[in-house]
Amino acid sequence: xxxxxxxxxxxxxxxxxxxxxxxxxxxxxxxxxxxxxxxxxxxxxxxxxxxxxxxxxxxxxxxxxxxxxxxxxxxxxxxxxxxxxxxxxxxxxxxxxxxxxxxxxxxxxxxxxxxxxxxxxxxxxxxxxxxxxxxxxxxxxxxxxxxxxxxxxxxxxxxxxxxxxxxxxxxxxxxxxxxxxxxxxxxxxxxxxxxxxxxxxxxxxxxxxxxxxxxxxxxxxxxxxxxxxxxxxxxxxxxxxxxxxxxxxxxxxxxxxxxxxxxxxxxxxxxxxxxxxxxxxxxxxxxxxxxxxxxxxxxxxxxxxxxxxxxxxxxx
Amino acid sequence: xxxxxxxxxxxxxxxxxxxxxxxxxxxxxxxxxxxxxxxxxxxxxxxxxxxxxxxxxxxxxxxxxxxxxxxxxxxxxxxxxxxxxxxxxxxxxxxxxxxxxxxxxxxxxxxxxxxxxxxxxxxxxxxxxxxxxxxxxxxxxxxxxxxxxxxxxxxxxxxxxxxxxxxxxxxxxxxxxxxxxxxxxxxxxxxxxxxxxxxxxxxxxxxxxxxxxxxxxxxxxxxxxxxxxxxxxxxxxxxxxxxxxxxxxxxxxxxxxxxxxxxxxxxxxxxxxxxxxxxxxxxxxxxxxxxxxxxxxxxxxxxxxxxxxxxxxxxx
Amino acid sequence: xxxxxxxxxxxxxxxxxxxxxxxxxxxxxxxxxxxxxxxxxxxxxxxxxxxxxxxxxxxxxxxxxxxxxxxxxxxxxxxxxxxxxxxxxxxxxxxxxxxxxxxxxxxxxxxxxxxxxxxxxxxxxxxxxxxxxxxxxxxxxxxxxxxxxxxxxxxxxxxxxxxxxxxxxxxxxxxxxxxxxxxxxxxxxxxxxxxxxxxxxxxxxxxxxxxxxxxxxxxxxxxxxxxxxxxxxxxxxxxxxxxxxxxxxxxxxxxxxxxxxxxxxxxxxxxxxxxxxxxxxxxxxxxxxxxxxxxxxxxxxxxxxxxxxxxxxxxx
Amino acid sequence: xxxxxxxxxxxxxxxxxxxxxxxxxxxxxxxxxxxxxxxxxxxxxxxxxxxxxxxxxxxxxxxxxxxxxxxxxxxxxxxxxxxxxxxxxxxxxxxxxxxxxxxxxxxxxxxxxxxxxxxxxxxxxxxxxxxxxxxxxxxxxxxxxxxxxxxxxxxxxxxxxxxxxxxxxxxxxxxxxxxxxxxxxxxxxxxxxxxxxxxxxxxxxxxxxxxxxxxxxxxxxxxxxxxxxxxxxxxxxxxxxxxxxxxxxxxxxxxxxxxxxxxxxxxxxxxxxxxxxxxxxxxxxxxxxxxxxxxxxxxxxxxxxxxxxxxxxxxx
Amino acid sequence: xxxxxxxxxxxxxxxxxxxxxxxxxxxxxxxxxxxxxxxxxxxxxxxxxxxxxxxxxxxxxxxxxxxxxxxxxxxxxxxxxxxxxxxxxxxxxxxxxxxxxxxxxxxxxxxxxxxxxxxxxxxxxxxxxxxxxxxxxxxxxxxxxxxxxxxxxxxxxxxxxxxxxxxxxxxxxxxxxxxxxxxxxxxxxxxxxxxxxxxxxxxxxxxxxxxxxxxxxxxxxxxxxxxxxxxxxxxxxxxxxxxxxxxxxxxxxxxxxxxxxxxxxxxxxxxxxxxxxxxxxxxxxxxxxxxxxxxxxxxxxxxxxxxxxxxxxxxx
Amino acid sequence: xxxxxxxxxxxxxxxxxxxxxxxxxxxxxxxxxxxxxxxxxxxxxxxxxxxxxxxxxxxxxxxxxxxxxxxxxxxxxxxxxxxxxxxxxxxxxxxxxxxxxxxxxxxxxxxxxxxxxxxxxxxxxxxxxxxxxxxxxxxxxxxxxxxxxxxxxxxxxxxxxxxxxxxxxxxxxxxxxxxxxxxxxxxxxxxxxxxxxxxxxxxxxxxxxxxxxxxxxxxxxxxxxxxxxxxxxxxxxxxxxxxxxxxxxxxxxxxxxxxxxxxxxxxxxxxxxxxxxxxxxxxxxxxxxxxxxxxxxxxxxxxxxxxxxxxxxxxx
Lengths: 316, 316, 316, 316, 316, 316
Known about the structure:
Structural class of chain A: alpha+beta
Largest interface: A-F, 30 and 30 residues
Oligomer: homohexamer
Mean pLDDT of chain A: 91
Strand order of the largest sheet of chain A: 1-2-3-5-4
Shape of chain A: elongated
């Protein structure tokens, strides 16, 4: 049998092989000449590749559904400048049996590019450097209490960092930017660390995540901005003598981080820390959107129109 | 000595008399002919009247400052269709001595038109009619805990119900409208009662009030929308077995009551109760603004341009 | 033969039966396995149910078109939490012959939930209670002149109350709300009754309705706001000595009822009556949209995204 | 005695003389050194010049009020590049006596630059060239019925053409532009003539004008857009067999001429005639605003910031 | 063999014939009864007609692709009020062989309605009438340098004048309107001629055009507004002693021609010439959009909803 | 004679002394008791202090004008928490004579806090680190050609960095932030250096500066965004073989740096470099505005309402 495919992100054309994927889309279509074929999206931890079943499409198309983990045999191909996988055989994964061949669910779920343990250590470092003992204790208690979700949650449903551990990747990236800017503008770095690590904390209650992501009831009705402020107020209540002014500052950072009322901030940034945090958060979300858009296959110098950004992007 | 003036709201021209007022404005000006005079605003519990010192203006103008309670002697006059009080004598109040003549600070502070005890009983009635025992207990605990502020707070700094007990007047008025509309549309009346009485509860922490009104630090940095949700979450935490879904509904009512993100609602109304509450709140604020605008003296059929509403209003 | 289906609104799964419907959609599709099937929307006076033809789809699909009244035999089914009707036989209605079995066109056309005669009596009551004889006469003349359309017209093409007699349902609902609010705020109740009953009167000329709804030429080019004001001016001209100030007030109510210029109001509300009417109209339209959205079948606690409202709604 | 001043528009510095003016502003002020002086605005039919009373200011300032016609003696001066009139003597006009010296009220009221009779003839010409007999008759009936107001009305309170006969000046200018553009784009010229002459006709009822301009009750509550459509509908009703489609087109032109809903158009232009009319109207209003701004005295190449246009203008 | 079809714009039903077209769309579909057919768009220099292949669809559908020039045999038909061409035979054009029968690529590419030479002469005339020798020389140098593109370029990708020589058609039309309006308002006609002919000149670098239109890299990243100003600055640099103030005026015309910042104008019109140019450009684009919308086949009095304009249009 | 005052930024109350200032405001006013006094604003290189002349105000007020350099003798005072200078003597500076006492014009003009030579060296460093030889040469040529203006220009008229050398301070600050962010997101650092140093380069032609700042003709009519792109295109034209793609990238950075069309960017950021630059520029402008607002004297925890930012700021 042929060898196993490399990761999706580093696939090259004209490879024959096999692999395990999560099938995230399955459409039965007719070709130009009227022939039936099946169009698939196949995902592993590094990305998504388009698949096509041309031979025996009617029968193979019945073997699995969108949402299934599948074992695929075929070869890669370059079509209009996009990579595609021409499927020769496909079936549902049988977890018990396929484990022997190296199948692991987590390898087929889109994932942040950095290892989660490495990111966790970076977060620990950041907390260690906080000088204000109350702020440090708050961050530690949050990290301990929500360790499981903090390690696995995505940062959003679809917009940016919408994959396993994307939440952690996002808050660390915001922290790095905010601390650099904070140093340049003489901001309170402890507050910026807290703001960066906590600004989206409400998303741990706003979203529900296993393989896919959904809004919770509270996520819809209360929203992560207010949920975050409430979680922090509760966590602070458990820390004796936490100064009220510091609590207010951290709540302000969370409540104002969307920057403008029309983006869902009930209050707008009124301190340099809040302005820096909001700028760092907005930029990081955009950078991640751009990165996603640029990795989508395309022929030309420019990406397709990005409706959220309202423009095309240049590949450079 | 002449007799005491009636309340400002019912002043008529050509009365000579005396009275106690809060002086809220004092400007030294020159008239057309170059003569010095003093222009005043004099307030009692029912409204504000313009005053003018023409005789002995330089000396009398030194006797008091804006912000002082004053004893005034003079006569009323109609000037360009507006009532004015031509001051013949004026001095600072001497509280100890003037008490004997009936001076009371509270009579000189702008006040809601209905007696506060009557409004308090109406609120008690509303709470009594709530059928859900958890919601009823929540409302009782809030009423007990914040009784003092609930009886005296204004509803806002300047926009609407900006006077003593205006808060209570506003939430009762919203409750009446919301319950009528709720009956028509089959809404949950318990939730509407809670939403109406609690939607602005964060203003008790957002504002500081004695004779005048100011924003607190938390008022600016956290804002009454989030403060209200947090106060309610804390109050609910003290009620054993309060259902989580009810808590989420009440928090949603508070967080969405501004109706649109651009007006500071971090989430927008997603239930018929939240839509009704938001409509009732918006209408009550407008009705109060119209009432204020119509009571300002003016010659014509139409009021001056109301910049918040972006239009003139018709006196009918 | 099996028994007749109950109304769509009260359909339950696993019933075999037959019924008359208006087919409002017919799509020929291919299933996952490539098989042809027909997807239908079947309407009676109480709602719409999705239909599917799986057996003999090619032949049965030729028997009728979207827009036809059809006689359907089949059984109900629950599919992903939505009711659907699996069609075993279907043909065009033959009006003469099917009348015997109880076919009536009006039973297959979406209709306001309240009987029209009952609504008409409510409107009569409202007019009877108007104290101003000129306003009362105006309302009577309008009711008489447009009786036919007032009883049958929908309130809109698609947004809200978009079904037979939806117009009457809407104006009565607005009247009830407006009069309650008017009582609370001391508004002129005669004007509010007139405003509520007449605010959309231009829609009788803006729309053309038999089984479906279309814009007329004047509807597009003049619009119901201005058409309404013109119809009222003409009706008033026929009432001797109708006071000019009352005419202006009623025209203002009609012209300002959309509340803001960007929503098509050439003037914005300048009286408390106009503000109340505009709030009541807006709320009633939203309540109806919510009601429609909540009755659409769905799995979860939340509806699909409502693009007009810009949010999802909670089923509670 | 010195000779009479030339018109304000053609005043030059260093002239001694006398003249009749309408005083539109009178402010008593203190100079840098503390001396009292009086600042005036003096208007004749061609413009406004600033006046200053330095000598005997206290006494002369008592001789008249803003709103009075005055007789002024003094000399012109150039101050910071602006013309000003240094007043040596000033008194109220005595109409009977001053008539002998050539005083006429109408010479002191700001006026369109073209003679009204010449403009009237141009309008007659335009009507004469209308080929559709119904449209021609409509225009004639309107011209006859409203001749007095059409000759004297301003086009607005303050924004553009805000002077005697400004209305006529504006509609003729719009007509010229619209007909030129209509010829270029193959539009219906009869409709464009009607649209240009009638689009603002509601202003004859929206505004009240003698020496100054005010909104009427209907002007505020109904507005000139709807008033215009109603006036035209009434005028058309008096013309037997006026085609309904033509009426709808003319009403559409009036109702849509503000171009966008947010500018108060209840419907937006849906025909090339309506688009051309709206463009011609908007441009003419802007051209007149620019002309006013450029004639205001100023030192530099650029005007002061024009808040309505949101920019400065270049003098070229 | 049957005769050749007339131009698409003047096609009538029930003609049998043959013709050369550019096929711009090819969709393989299933009919109501499940039969396969091919839906085409066929373009010549005057417009686009819909085609249908019903007979032998599978085989004929393989004979060509969208983007090919094709030779078509069939007959015309009226379907739901729209013209369609029922194709009986179709094949790719063989340029060498079909030239003999009159095939010319340029006849199959959508084209401005006026002959390009006639338009060129009109532009020459306009330049000849410019009195300022510097402006005239600038226009001549631009016309000479860019003659090829000026004769063939479209004015946009999709919005308006999106066909061969549409650029030239558009700038001439803007020039005619602007000069007429300029005469009425006393504008500098030389500047208006320059502004009209040069305002979109950056599009010659923004777009790439042969048979179809694409954005260039500079088109996306710099945009035609700034590109135009830069091209003009370069062209002016080659003209000795070109007055700086004239250069600034022309650059202002180009940079401000979109009228408002939100439409991409880095500066807003500050001169009457810039205001006139912007109005003429906006109107011409709209007039062309309307013309396109009205020529699309449709049943009713009104066009389909025009999403760019946000409304339907009336056919009159 | 008393000693010289320290710098305005470090003034403390109750100092008697003398100093040289630029008087930027002079108002003659009347106090509460009617007495004349003069209110001044007095500026040195570090800030502005309010002055008051109470004694001999009429005479001393004649000794100088706003815009003059003045020599002041008096004592400092704290009034409502703000520093003020009670002037006992004041006269115009006599440059020749006062030089002996240490008068230098540049010491009385508001100035960036960092020494200009130090900033210049930092810019040199940045340029030195650019690896792309073309970009480096471009930056060097710009620095050389505009050295004089680069060292002295403010960054804006009023909004931010509106003082001598504010331009240099701003671009360096943007460069630091952009390079840090660029390192974090893997951006092209050469392009970011170029973008940061050049993005506002058009302001050297947009503004005219000696002691005060004005817009130039080109500044108003062309604007600094387009002017900057043109200046760079010209500078690049002088560098042989400058790659076209690099030129386009730099022009894109300049043209898009305002981030959104409504803020005057003719194109919006389409690369990560452009997004980073725009974020860094926006943040730096806001940080400077906050800094200015926080240094304005005030009593409370919060600043006055900042109309540009639409909120109050917290002093922390």
